[in-house]
Each structure stands twice: as structure tokens, then as C-alpha cells.
Amino acid sequence: MGEEAQGLTAPPRRPTINDVAARSGVAASTVSRAFSRPDRVKSTTRERIAVAAEQLGYVPSDHPTERVPARQGSVAVLVPDITNPFFFDFIRSTQHQLRTAGYTQMLVDTQEDVDLEAGYLEEFRTSAVGFILAATRLKDEQLTAAAARTPLVVLNRETPGVPSVVIGTAEAAQQALEHLYSLGHRDIAYIAGPPTSWSDGRRWAALEQMADQLGATVRRLGPYHPSQRSGAAAADTLLNSGASACIAFNDVLAIGILVRLHERGVDVPGEISVVGCDDVFGSDFCNPPLTTLASPIEQAGRVATDLLISRMRPDLAQGRSQVVLPAHLKTRSSTGPLARRG
């Protein structure tokens, strides 16, 4: 006899992590984090999630595969240089968040090429349900048009109408300039990155403003490709400029500068002080260890993913569309007092 004839009914469906997310108005990844790493979720959010879980009768499982919801599509994560260690933690963070929420990550290296990035964005329109663009080199109008077609979030870029996560390296660069000024440096160089980099322009504007306030001279050298290989040419230009200190666009460029200065017998920081940006893995292993602008890149990946998921899931409450994460100066041995000459 069939189940209906026997008066039996199918067991009720167990509530899932997505049910709790919808009830509490957050992303599924936030629900997962509230149970697995509660210290990384605000107390008010944790309480809301706990109430929703209790109302639904949801019990988190200890089995990893049971915590992962069914696949909901692929998200393309585009980065300008996959070999840049700045993006390592970002990529790992977005992948974890997306997997927890039921999405697959497609990683794309745009090779610092604007046309290549635009081409990939068009190519993956039909196969990706959303995009995360890290340090995009596209123009505002391109981003606006893309965001109107497909859910999209950008890292380190501000474009009206496009959700974004910005790391405050411009303000941290001002901290670096004040630090160098306090050490006696009055002629300081900024080793610029790609001309299409939005962050580069922001840092330079912030440095000019702070230099005016301090009465210091800041000069822009470059642009340079943000790689260690370009550091040699940047170091040679730096030595010819007469500046006693420099702030580099990123750590890998700064590390290349340190290597070249060592080859030329220049003492760091005795003769020239060097500051990087990003605090990537290995920046504290340099000779000397690199003073740098520390960026919360892993957090940026989590926040960017949550912003994207909130756009892809209309059942979830829409939160902030722009988030700014502070960066800060981390002093090490590559900066020191200006040596008296002559």
C-alpha cells in the first residue's frame, strides 16, 4: 500500500542556512560565520540570527558538506595581477564566503589590461551571476553600464551607483608622510603606480594636501608597473631625484626598490627611507623589514562578497552599498631619521 493509503505524510523539510539568512535579513555567509566564528559578527547581528534560527528550529550541523547550500551559480572575481600577494587573502576570503553561500568562484587575471578586463566582463555576462572587480581599471561609465546589467561590486574604487569597498590607503599615506616628516625628511618622493589606478590618484592627492600642511616637498615619480621588477628603475630615478625618502605604490614595488638600493650600496634607512603599501606576506622579511601601510584585505573580501550576495538575493535586506575600511601605518626598519650629510 502507498504512504497516503497508510495515512503517512512526508517528514517536514529541515530549515536551512538560507532560511535563517532570509528570516534575519543577512547573507547566508554571515549566518555561517555567526555560528562558526561568532567573534567576527556584531553582537546585534548574532542575536538577530540566533532568534531567527530558534524560530525556524534550525540547528547548525558539524558536518561541513551539510553547511554548504546547493550551488546557486558562479561569481567571477577579476583581479589585475594574480601574482601580486596583495590579492592572495582577498581571493581566499571571497572564495570561502561564496562557497558558504552556495556560489562557485571563477578567478580571472586581467593582467593590468583595461581592454582585457572589459572583454572578460562582457564574455562572462551569460555565465556569471555576479562580479567582484578588485582594483578595476575600467572607466566610470563602463562600470555603471556593467552594474546595470549584472550584480557587481568593486574593490578600491568609487563610482556613483556601483557598490564598493574602499580601503583607506589615502589617509594612511598621509600618516606615512607625517611619519617621514617627523624623522626629518623634507623632500619625499611618491613612486606612482599605474595611471589607470583609482587608488593611486587618491593617494597622490592626499599626499599633496598633507605636504602643503607640513611645508614639505613631495614629488611624483613614475608611473611604474606595480611589480618588483619595476623597482630597479624606480630606485635609480629616486636616487637621481635627490629625495631622502619615498612612499611606493605597493609593497612589491617597494621591495624591488630595496633590492636595487642594496645592489648600489645605498644604506636603508641611513641614506634613504622607504615606505610600501599593503603589508603583504614577506614585507616583514625584507632587509630591512619594510615600513608599510597595512590593509585589511581579508576583511575587504568578506565585505565585498556580502555586498554582492545582498544584490543577488532580493529576499535579503539591502544594507550599505559603500563601505570604507581603514588602513594604518605599520613602522618597521626601512624608515629612519634623516642622516646629516657633509
TrEMBL record:
The keyword Ribosomal protein does not apply. PANTHER family: HTH-TYPE TRANSCRIPTIONAL REGULATOR GALS, LACI-RELATED TRANSCRIPTIONAL REPRESSOR. Keywords: DNA-binding, Transcription, Transcription regulation. SMART domains: HTH_LACI (SM00354). The lineage of its organism: Bacteria, Bacillati, Actinomycetota, Actinomycetes, Micrococcales. It comes from Sinomonas puerhi. It comes from the Bacteria. GO terms for molecular function: DNA-binding transcription factor activity; transcription cis-regulatory region binding. Residues 15-61 form the HTH lacI-type domain. InterPro entries: HTH_LacI, LacI/GalR-like_sensor, Lambda_DNA-bd_dom_sf, Peripla_BP_I. Gene3D superfamilies: 3.40.50.2300, lambda repressor-like DNA-binding domains. SUPFAM superfamilies: lambda repressor-like DNA-binding domains, Periplasmic binding protein-like I. This is LacI family DNA-binding transcriptional regulator.
